[in-house]
Structures are given as structure tokens and as C-alpha cells.
Amino acid sequence: MSYTPPAMPVAPPPPPGGPARPGAWLKSPVGLARATMVLLGVGMAVDVFSLWAGVGVLDVVSDLIDHGWSADAEDRADRADTLYGTSGVLQALVLLVTATVFICWFHRVRVNAEVFAPDAHTKGRGWAVGGWFVPVVNLWFPRRIAVDTWNASSPGFFVSPPGDFAPEQPRRTLLNAWWTLWLCTGILGQIASRQYANAEEPEAIERAVVSLLASDVLNIAAAVVAILFVRRLTAMQDAKARYGPGGVPA
């Protein structure tokens, strides 16, 4: 799927309304996409480790609820808590690195999409980065940018001249699934983390860990869909850059 970008952008003719804005040029997103997918895979592995560590905490807490405190149970609880804490640190580190690389890829494909269809974007390219960090705005700006980028990168997409019927929009099932899972993981993760931080009694800890385990499972599902999303959007841009609007060899 990788390609060597040509000296001049290979892209469909600009739609009515003018060429791409200054600074927009095609640059291969393949390398960043591969790095993003690898890091998402690493994140899934860390989530599996967190699930294993969380089950260990549940086992200890269950014993405490059934048999009460003892010196042996306290030692096991300390070891389980340390292991679970380590998994949480690893998750945070992998998330930070993955998010950084993903946002770089996201900005790259947004700029490419501006070459494909300069007038198909409702948000400036700077929001492809800033939109993730501004509170409230980050609940919908990244998806809007992703939709515009997906549309512009789809085979045969064009912007209709004023007065014409709008073109048929490409299917966005994968994009919508990615964004929905991303929002759900963020919400559930915040709730579960606060629940665990405030838990003191064994019963409360048990409930909090169950919530965290559910969050880890959702994280894994979200990572799988994110990999598919990154792979698909990168492939569409690669095909369009190679072969033009049709996305297939001539």
C-alpha cells in the first residue's frame, strides 16, 4: 500500500471555487498509519495485561469479602494492587504515545484531503490537531474533520457546483463505529477510574474493578475498530494519490 509521492500532487482537478489553500500538498500517510496501527496493537496487549491484573485483584478482594483480613491476604492484596497500578501506568504511557502518533496521522490525511477536495471541509486543517484538546469542542470537531476527510478521500467524490444536486455521500459505517467507541471508552474510563480511586471497602473496590475490566474490554474493541479505520482511510488516500479520482488503476 505504500507509495513514493510524486514530485507534483497526483489528485483530481480542483472543484469550482479555487485550488487547495497554500501549504496543502500530498504526502504519504502510510508510514504514520503503520506506526499508529502498531501502537494500537501494543495498547491492546497492555489492556489484556490489565485485564489479567484486574482479575487478580478481584480474586483477592473476593477472598477478603468471604474470609476477612489476614496477614497473608494483606500481602496478596499489596502485590495485586502494585501489579494493577503498574498496568495502569503502562496504559497511560502507551495511550500518550499512540495519541501523539495518531494525531500526526490525522493531520496528515486532513491536509491530503484538502488537495483532493479543497472546498469539502467545514473546519480548518489546524483543528485536526487543536480539536482534540479544546474542551466540549473535542466531542464533535474531530468527527466532523474525519467525515470531511473521509468524503474527500473516497473514490469519485467531488463537490457539486452551486445549484447542482449534492453528490452521493460515501458510506461511513466504519468511521461512525470508530468515533462512537472512542467516546464510550473515554466516558466509561473516566467513570471507572473515579470509582476505583474513591473505593475503600472491599465491596466498593470489587465493583470498581469490574467497571475497569469492562473499560479495558471496550478499549480493546475500540482499538480494533480504530485500526480498521486508519487502514481504510489510508488505503483510500493511497489509491486516490496513485490513480486519481477513481481510485483504481487505469
TrEMBL record:
Assigned keywords, A-Z: Membrane, Transmembrane, Transmembrane helix
Region feature (Disordered): 1-22
The name this protein goes by in its record: DUF4328 domain-containing protein
Transmembrane segments: 37-62, 82-106, 177-197, 209-230
Domain named DUF4328: residues: 73-235
Ranges of Pro residues composition bias in the record: 1-19
Statement: the UniProt record of this protein carries the keyword Transmembrane helix: yes
InterPro entries: DUF4328 (IPR025565)
Species of provenance: Streptomyces silvensis
